[in-house]
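Consortium newsletter contribution from the modelling node. Members have asked for a concrete example of what our holo predictions look like. Here is one, prepared for the heme C complex that several groups have been discussing at recent meetings.
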Amino acid sequence: MNKFLKWAGIIVGGLVGLLLVSLLILYGMGQARLNKTYDVPVTMVEISNDEESLAEGKRIFQYRGCEACHGEDLQGLVYLDNPAIGQVITPNLTTGKGGIGSQRTDEDLIRAIKHGIRYDGTPLLFMPSTEFYYLSDADLGKVLAYIRSKPPVDNEVQSSKLSTTGFIVMNIAKTITFLPAELIPHDQTPPPAPEPGVTAEYGGYLSLSCRVCHGQTYSGGAIPGFPAEWPAAPNLTSGAGSRLPGWGEGGFIEIMRTGEHHGRKINPSYMPWKSYRHMNDDELKAVYTYLMSLPPKDFGNR
Ligand code: HEC
Ligand code: HEC
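And here is the predicted structure:
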C-alpha cells in the first residue's frame, strides 16, 4: 500500500479513536453528575390551610411559573422533548394514579423546591430552584398548602430521561443549566426575604426569574442557550433602548397583564406574561420600582 495512504489511515483512525474516547468520558461525566447524591437537611415551614393562604398559594404557584411547567391541575407535562437532550417531564404532583403526592413528605417537597433535589438525593433536571432557594418561608408554606389541597388527578407520566447525546451535551453546553442543584449553596441559609410592599427590595425578590432571559443586569439581548429564532429579550433597565421609562408604571402593568401596550405585542411562548399576570398591582409596582432603581444599562449589556 502507498505509504502516504497508510499514514493517513493511521492518523484518521487515531483521531476517530480519540474522539470516541472523549465522548465516552463526557458521557461518563454526565452520568456521574446525574447520579451524584446530595445530603441536604431541610427545615420545615409552617403550612396554613386557611382559605386565604390557599388562594395566595395558588397565585404564587402561578406567578412563579410553577403552573406553566407543572400544569394547571398539577398533573405533570412534557417540559422538553428534544432527541439531542432527551425527555424532561414534570411529575404529577397530586395524589392520583401516577402522582407523587402521597409518596413524598413535606420535607421532600421543600428539598425539591428550594434545592432542586429529588427525595433520593439526586439532582432534578431543569427545575429552577436557583430562584426558589430564595423563597420566603411564608410563600413556601402557602405553595405547599396549595399543592396538598389539589384534588387527585390520574396521570401516569414517564420519568425524565436524558438521551445518550444528552449526557454529552450537558457537559458541553455551559449556558444551559441542566442541574440547578449544582449552582445552589446548599449549606448556607439564604438571606431573609424582604417584607412584601411596594419597594425595590421586594420587587427584586419577585424579579429573580426575569434574569434567565433578560440577563443578570436586566438589560436584555440574545438569550444564551435558547433557539436562534427566539426574539432578543428587551432592555428592562432605564438605559438606552428601553421602552419602560416611556411606558411608565401603568404601561408596564398593562403589558405584564395583557401582553400588549400601545401597539406593542409580546408573544407568550417567549415572554411568560401569562404567569406574571397573576401578580397583583402592588407586586407589579414593586417590580417596576426595582427595575427603575437598577443602574441604567445599554441594551444587551447582559
Ligand atoms: C421551568 C419549569 C419548571 C418550573 C418553573 C417549576 N418546575 Fe418543578 N420541576 C420541573 C421539572 C422538569 C421537574 C422534574 C425534573 C426531573 O424529572 O428530574 C420538576 C420537579 C419538581 C418537584 C419534584 C417532585 C418529586 O419528584 O419529588 C417538585 C415538588 C416541584 N417540581 C415543584 C415545583 C414548584 C412548587 C414550583 C414553583 C415554585 C416549580 N416546581 C416550578 C420543572 C419546573
Ligand atoms: C423565558 C424568558 C423570559 C423570562 C423568564 C422573562 N422574559 Fe420578559 N421577555 C422575554 C422576551 C423574549 C421578550 C420579547 C418578546 C417578544 O418580542 O415577543 C420579553 C419582553 C418583555 C417585556 C416587554 C418589553 C419591551 O420593550 O417590549 C417586558 C416588560 C418584560 N419582558 C418583563 C419581564 C419581567 C418583569 C420578567 C420577570 C418577572 C420577565 N420579563 C421574564 C423573555 C422573558
